[in-house]
Structure formats: C-alpha cells, structure tokens
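1st attempt posting a full record on here, be nice pls
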Amino acid sequence: MQSFTFTSRLLTRVLAAGAVCLGLLGHAQAGNYWNGVSRALPVSPLGNIVALSCHNCYGNSNAETTTEVALALARDFDLIELDVTLHANGVAYVEHTDSEEARGTFDAALANSSLQQSNRLLFLEIKEAYGSAAASDTLMLGVLRSIRDRNYASAGRPAVLRAFMDRHQHLVRAKALLAQSEFAGIRDHIRFHNLIQTDIRNNIRATKNLGFHGVELEYRMPSLFGALIQAKMLGLGAGVYTTPASMGELYLSALREDVDFITSDYDRGASPAATSARALVQESTSLMYLNTAQQAGYPLSYRRSNGTAYPIAQGSATPAFELLSVASDEDRVGGSMAFSGGQSVGTWDADNDAAGGFLVTAVVNFDDLASGSTAAILAKSDTGGFALEQYATQLRFGVYVNGSYSYATAPLSAFNGTDSYFLVGAYDGSGAVRLWVNNVEQTASASISGGVGQNNSPVVIGADPQGATTRRFYFSGKIQQAMVQRWRNH
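the predicted structure (as tokens):
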C-alpha cells in the first residue's frame, strides 16, 4: 500500500486541494454543502448538516405520487426524489424505468400545491438512457421548464438534477440549456450530481471537471470513506444511497457526521417510525468523534457531545500521522493515525446510559491479519463497556452485560491489507449484539438483555484500556475515523 510521510511539501499540496471545503482543523463548520439553503435542515450534535432524501417518492399515477409526497412532507424529509423518463410522445413522466405506459407526468407532480408551497428541495434522477443530444434536449427542456414554471429552483431552494454516470450526458445537456435566456431565473439554483458505481475515483474527478456539484455513492461500497473524503477535498458535496428501512436507524446514526445527504427508505411505511429520520440525525447521543481525514496533523482534535474541540497532543505513545494526497487513489485520502503496535490515543470516560448500550464506528486499514494477536481498534473494555477488536481469527464487537462479554463476529479471512473498511458495532440494551462491515451485517450474538456495564476507563483508540493510563492489546494498522454514541432501542 502506497503511503506518504508527513512532510511540509505534501501538507502544502493537501491544504491547497482541500482546506477550503473541509476546514481541516474543524468539523462541518465552514463550506458546508447546504450553506444558503432556506430550509432548516437536520444538524447533527457536532454541527454537520445532513439533508434526508425520501427514496423513490412517487407512485404509478399522479394521485399515487401526491400521496407519497404528502407522506414525505409529513415525515419531514428534506429532499423529494422523483425519477424521470421521456416517452415517445415527447413528455416527461415520473417512473423508475421507461415503460411507455400511462403514468403521472413530471409536470403534474410539480403542480402539487402542497409541494410547491413547502420549502422542500427537488431531488430529480434522470432515468432515461442517453441516446442523442436531440432526444436529451427534449427531455431536459421539459424538465427545466416545469421546474421554472412551477416556481421551484429559487434562491434558498435549489433543485438537484442527478444521473448515473452512463446517463450523465443528460446533465451536460441540461447545464448547456441553462445558458439560454429563458432559464435566467433558475440557472443559479440548479445543482448537478453524479451517482457513481464503477471506476470510482476517476468518475469523482470527472464530476468535478464537468463543473457538477456532488457525488452519490452506494452505501455498501468498498473503501467508502476514501471516496467520500476525496469528493469533499475536491469541493464536491458527498452522500450515499439508498439506506434500507430495516435497521435504517443505525445507518442514519452511523453516517450522520460524515456525509452531506442520505437517500433512505427508513420511515416510509404506513405508520410512522418511533423515531423519525430527522430526529435520528439530531439526537443527542454523541460521546466521542474523531476523524483525522479532516485534519492536518498533531495536535489532533476530537469532539464529545457537541462541537467543542478537545486536543490530542503528539507524544511518545501516540501513533504516527500519515497523510495521503487527494490524487493518490488509495483506500483512504487525507490523514490517518498509523499504529504499529505500542501506540494508542486516549479520549475520555464516556459512559452509556445505564439501561442502554453503544453504537461505535471506525474506518480501518489492517496491517496485521495473520498473527492471531488480540488487538483493540476502539475500546472501553475494562470489566464493562465495549470492544471493537481483532481476536484470533475474528473481528468482533462485544459489550459487557450481566457480568460477561457477548460478541458479534466476522472472519478475518474476509479482510485484506489494501482496502479500508467501515466498521459498525451496536447493542441497544435488549437483543443481539451486532456488527457490520461496509454496512453489511455479520454474525450477531445470541439475544441478551440489560444495560452495558459502566466503568471508569476512557474510550481508547488503538488499544484496550486497563484503568486510566494502562494499555494492552495494541492494534497495527491505520485508523481514520472513530465514533462512539449512546445507543437505545429506536
């Protein structure tokens, strides 16, 4: 794996590429993708703004689409996703694929007075395959004219046009059409996103070079955080699609500090979820968050329950700092803590609620997958708390409940030393202990019940704490992000 030492020359290049959009020593405090939007979008406990998109917010007729939009408005979604195709009659329709069947038209969907009078943003995906410039112009002129005539895309209320890379030429045509005088009133309020599935890094660069505004990535893709940070360092908005309804509360909570938008199926059922998507983003559950990708080196800073920064000074027992160029196309870009055994980063004694549990995340690149040594990635495991760790031939996440640890597991044979992995462990006080790798669930524990035992040890990155200062079970590898939240049954 290619890596770079922390030199002033490399730092200069990285800062030039990314400082404006990231605020390398801050967290979501400058250059947020949604700055200037009038709607009060959800804000995480640490200050990150995350717009929530109602996935496929339409039906097979205009009446069904009106019903779906009404549900999205009632559930407080920010982005209303409509898919758009072109029929042979030259009219744009709202549907997932070009069926040439009678569906609700795009213009009729935008004529919905409740949607018009709301402050919600249009999130429009062009589903039509690209054939020719002439056919694309027919479609995109219809889309742009409906947006204009129905009074969307105004100051503080942008509309977002989106397409997968194999259809992005529709966006290129729309961008050119906006130069026409008839669109003078909306041209500054249209944004363009590419949804990227393949050739990830080159297509992120292509999105930037096209003058587009954001990228959307599949939430289970390998080395997700490397792509998210690359996009941000290039000045693009970055988000994910489509987190599911099942365990949707976990995905929203686990991703809320690191993305600008999430398309989700969560809380789309006939009965509202006990906790809305917006409430999950804003819930005051944060205990510890550190993302070194957004920092330039020591002293590092981390957050606890709010935006206050707590310093981590460099010392003999702290890991080296690795900085990867935005152009490196490594599994990660930006900064990471490089643990070689014997180093750790201590934070603070962050306990769960007595009857509840923990949600923890980490972005990790492994250097030692074969020794069988116990190695803690993120832990508070001192006769209590939790541990996310390597153990023999397994990766495991465990919590201390009723006098012993219970674990969810994944085989280390499924990992390599080249990719980075987004790891999530969770237990809510009743039920299974669960573990996800790249947002795919692994083998859960048997069901248990009871709050996680509290202790007086700090949350430690890269080792297992034994009291306030003693450490053991040191990790070898790179850790870029680590987060801990209180977690309860939602």
